[in-house]
Design goal:
Elements (H helix, E strand, L loop, with lengths): L1 E4 L2 E3 L5 E7 L8 E7 L6 E6 L6 E3 L7 E6 L4 E6 L8 E8 L13 E2 L3 E5 L1
Parallel strand pairs: 2-11
Antiparallel strand pairs: 1-3, 3-8, 4-5, 4-9, 5-6, 7-8, 9-10, 9-11
């Protein structure tokens, strides 16, 4: 089970941190990632992280602004978002799956959360 939290409304240039709490499996065995889907847009990969956090991957649109991290002791995934832009407005979803890690390819993830809304104005 994946449960996102931390979304909200923020002005352009602001920051937010969204979290994804997990339960029911050995979290540190799973690849995890954040995806988003804006109004009228396809779901896109935002950031991904390997099982132990040693490797991270980012979409070009968020590089330098977003940071993905995971705390395996707390079974929690994070996405720190800085310098937010109106085009970052979307529903943000966390996803996980067993290796091999699919990076930012949505079809490679088996488990999905319900999403948390981020709105930038």
């Amino acid at each position: 089970q994946l449960v996102e939290s931390g979304g909200g409304s923020v002005q352009a240039g602001g920051s937010l941190r969204v979290s994804c709490a997990t339960s029911g499996y050995i979290y540190n065995s799973y690849c995890t990632a954040w995806f988003r889907q804006g109004p009228g847009k396809e779901r896109e990969g935002v950031a991904a992280i390997s099982t132990e956090g040693g490797s991270t991957f980012y979409a070009d649109s968020v590089k330098g602004r977003f940071t993905i991290s995971r705390d395996n002791a707390k079974n929690t995934l994070y996405l720190h978002m800085n310098d937010l832009k109106p085009e970052d407005t979307a529903m943000y979803y966390c996803a996980s799956s067993l290796p091999p890690c699919s990076k930012l390819v949505a079809s490679g993830y088996k488990y999905w959360g319900q999403g948390t809304q981020v709105t930038v104005s």
